[in-house]
Amino acid sequence: MGTENNSALERIVTNFEMASSLPSDLDLESPAMKAVIDAMPEARRGTFLAMYQDPDVRETSVVFNRSSGNYWRSLLTARDEGKKIVFVPFNFAPEIFHALNMVPVCVEVLTTMAQNLEEGVAEYLDLAVERGLPDTMCSTQRGVIGLFEAGILEKPDLLINGALGSCDPNSKAFEYMAEKFDIPALYLDIPYYHDKRALDYYARGFKNAIKAIEEMTGHKLDPDRLREVVDYTNRATELFFEINELKRNVPNPVPNYYNMQHIGTKFMMVGKPEAVEFYEKALEVSKDRLKKGKHVLPEEKIRVLFIYTFFYFDTSIYSWFQEEMGVSYLMDVLSAFDFNPHIDTSSVDTMLYGLAEEMFNLPMTRQLAGSWDMDSNWLWDSLYYAKTYKADCCVFSGHLACKQAWGVYRLVSDSIKKELGIPCLRLEGDGWDSRITPLAVIREQLEEFFETVV
Amino acid sequence: MRALEELTEVSENLENKYVSDWRNQGKKVVGYVCSYLPEEILYAADILPYRITGKGVKDTSQADSYLTRVNCTFSRCCLELGFSGGFDFLDGAVFINGCDHIRRAYDNWKAHQSALPFMYLLPVPHLINPEGRQWYLEEVVKFKEAIEAYFEVEVIDEKLSEAAAVYNETRRLFKKLYDLRAKDEPPLSGTEVVSILSAAAAMPKKEFNQILSELIEETEASSSKATGKVRLLVAGSLMDDPEFLRNVEDLGAVVVADALCFGAKNFWDLTDESGDVLEALVDRYYNHVPCPRMAGEYSRRFDFVKEQAERAHVDGVILEHIKFCDTHGADNALLKKDFEAAGIPAIELERQYGPLADAGRLRTRAQAFLERIRR
Ligand code: SF4
Ligand code: SF4
Fold it and tell me: Which of ligand 1's atoms lies nearest the C-alpha of A168?
């Protein structure tokens, strides 16, 4: 995929390959390394340091970057190998495509990756708007639309959206891509409720979508391949559950940046051995840190839960929390998967139903379709995660496009305060566009808030 | 035009005289949002369906502290009225999960002390397929049962059939009215039609049908017709206040067609009166011209707007959306591209509803568009 010299994908792959070629015993203090770091654009330097500053994080980063590099490279060769490429949102699990021998790309992860292009992603966000898309739509799909508009991202074979009912901007962005760039599209509806009837409806929709994918692409679902994929999924789930158990410790030994890598792995690579390899490494590192009494520096002062999204334009914020602020970043809703089921592999039907159940509990699908105070919805989950992981405070990053979240933020935060007695901060900005609220301002606001919490 | 004056008056008051008369007879009034709510069920229960609006709101400060500035001004105006007692004449409210904004307006209203005694949300699928249709049917049945239980009424098929006939009559009359609009010399302005549509949503349909029939007769006989004006179609976000169109029409245009959810999209499809009435209502509401909330239906939407544009021989199309309304905003961008490709000039206008409406900026843009068409 992508043959132009300035192909976004090729450059993303090159970035990852460069990153993954770095050894875990890197000496950041060496003059040569310092010169390299100084020469990096700011956002990329932030990400680099978030990945490599802490030696423990560096260990997980080496594994994560290697498997991600391979993953992105597989996209470049997919067509030659007869594999179709499908773009999905983050609440559409990748396993089914691995089982169908297709290559899934999570659009939101792709925009996040594009942050590290030399030119950044801002011009593509703007280009999408110049060419017609309302600027109130979410930047995390807008980035990819901008790359299409610029002609530096090749079209996938298929688009599948599963955000219907949980996020209007997300589902409309997919419809827009489909119509504007003439890409075949399929949709999966999320029901309003979260009960057995709703799951059955959703699972039927999922099965129908698979049938349609088979018809549209010619890829066929092989039961043995599906079982292999689901086995890897189950193994990954066991591992990240164990990591989550460790997070309950005070202080929390799990590095903050794990959350970012967890999202990348879960949204792209779960169902593959690479995901298992990453979680094994992350578990090993976290256990070791627990044993050695390691935690955020200088000491764990605050345990924070982000009740929805985080900031993705400059991930140095994780290391700022970790290395300077004594803030343990427990998780955000995008990296919280405590309700991932263990999938029964006894038949194709049980596996597909299990995958549907997994998707039914993915972020956004689970919390933001339906009413804010229903069981398993946004308030319920915020209370659960805050209590289970002993958060001292909550933060809503206030990504401006999340109108469904903004619309009940006050009800949710008031209830958190009332039920748990912990405060909630509402920021305002854009997770992928640094120009809306620059990182320096976000840091200032967080610092002030943390002072009041301590 | 007595009938027009009467309907305009109805459209200008929240609790209009028909609502008061209805209530004075000891009967119930239930508010609703969205064109996916089969109103006939309420009507058959002898409850007056009243379409919730945000008209007349001067300031949205209470609503803004729950819904926020990133939520559309229509949803905020409706919530403001709910919070401030503007809908106290209603016995209940029924919402649809039409979009992220309106469903959150429901959540906030329901959680607030001003919530009405009966608050209900009927969830509608976002896809048109057999599974979705089954889900919708089950939800409509649940809704009917909830109405029966709460208001202690029975919605029998005979009443439903009567209601379906009355509602179909409204739709047929509206089509007649739209035929008149589509003529070379339209006898009504778009501004007037918005008032008529808005009255239709706020009074009993039987009485409305009578007045609309009179209005059609009066209109046919009337000699005041718009000539030499630029003919426009308007489509996009919810519009039940005439100000936006008045602004555009003051510039020398006349709106002769629409594809609005209070307008043509709401009455174009009829209910089949021959078979099982509940099934027929479900089919009619589920399959009616799809709103932008329905995924994968863009081409049907485009075809519908284009059909309306062509039958009224418009010179141009105004695609408006309320700021932050992503469903219509994204659709409008596609519609603009496709209309231009079809040789019909189109403009996208982002606007506000209610007190934030920015008339001056819109006038300038509309004027430039009209000049482009005239050339
Ligand atoms: S929930 Fe928010 S961040 Fe996620 S896709 Fe929707 S608007 Fe974007
Ligand atoms: S105008 Fe748009 S955003 Fe507002 S309630 Fe209607 S569909 Fe929703």
Answer: 6
- For domain B158-374, the CATH class is alpha beta
Pocket probe mutation, ligand 2, options B77, B78, B322, max atoms within 8 Å of Cβ: B322
Q: Which CATH number does B29-155 carry? A: 3.40.50.11890
How many contacts (CB atoms, under 8 Å) link A and B? 126
Q: What is the amino acid identity at position A171?
A: S
Residue A437 lies in a domain: no
- What pLDDT score does A5 carry? 59
d(CA B3, CA A107): 55
Shortest CA distance from B294: residue in chain A:
A164
Average of per-residue pLDDT across B53-63 = 95
Angle at B310 between CA B307 and CA B312, to 5 degrees: 110
Question: Contact at 8 Å (CB) between B199 and B50?
Answer: no
DSSP readout, B269-307?
SPPP-SS-HHHHHHHHHHHSS--TTSTT-HHHHHHHHHH
pLDDT at A2 over 50: no
Average pLDDT over residues A371-400: 97
Closest ligand 2 atom number to CA of residue B325:
3
Confidence check: pLDDT of A426 > 90 = yes
Reading the block at residue A133, the tokens are 């898309």
Query: Phi and psi (nearest 5°) for A257?
Result: -70, -15
What is the ipTM for the molecules in this complex?
A: 0.96
Contact residues, chain B, for A407 at CB < 8 Å: 66-68, 71, 75, 100-101, 104-105, 107-108
Are A189 and B121 in contact (CB < 8 Å)? no
Count the domains in chain A. 1
Tokens encoding A76: 């470049």
Whether A15 maps to a domain, the answer reads: yes
> Which residues of chain B are in CATH 3.40.50.11900 domains?
158-374
- The kind and range of the H/E element at A67 are helix A55-78
Instruction: Tell me phi and psi for residue B321, to 5 degrees.
Output: -145, 145
Q: What is the mean pLDDT of residues B224-240?
A: 89
The model's pLDDT over B173-209, given as tens digits with 9 standing for 90+, comes to 999 999 999 999 999 999 999 999 999 999 999 999 9
Q: Is the pLDDT of residue B169 over 60?
A: yes
Comparison of pLDDT for B364 and A4, the residue scoring more = B364
Residues of A within 8 A of B326 (CB-CB) are: 134, 136-137, 168-169, 172, 403
d(CA A421, nearest CA chain B) in Å: 20
> Which residues from chain A sit within 8 angstroms of residue B68, using beta carbons?
406-407, 409
Under 8 Å between Cβ of B354 and B54: yes
Residue A224 CA: distances (Å) to CA of A204, A221, A227, A359, B207: 22, 9, 5, 21, 66
What residue type is A29 in one-letter code? E
Distance of residue B27 Cα from the nearest chain A Cα, in angstroms: 30
DSSP-derived 3-state class of residue A279: helix
**DSSP state at residue A399:** B
CATH of the domain at A105: 3.40.50.11890
Average pLDDT over residues A339-351: 97
Which residue on chain B is closest to A181 by alpha carbon?
B334
Round to whole Å and give the CA distance between A266 and A335: 8
Nearest CA in chain A to B123: A192
Q: Give the distance, in angstroms, between the CA of residue A390 and the centroid of all CA atoms in the same chain.
A: 23
Which residues of chain B are in CATH 3.40.50.11890 domains? 29-155
For tokens 């896809």, the residue is B127
A253 in a structural domain? no
| DSSP secondary structure letters along A274-330 | HHHHHHHHHHHHHHHHHHHT--SSS---EEEEESS----S-THHHHIIIIII-EEEE
Domain membership of residue A133 as a residue range: 8-204
For the segment A10-52, what is each residue's pLDDT rounded down to a tens digit? 998 888 888 777 777 778 888 888 888 888 877 778 888 888 8
Residue closest via CA to ligand 1's atom 7 equals A402
Contact check, Cβ <8 Å, B104/A408: yes
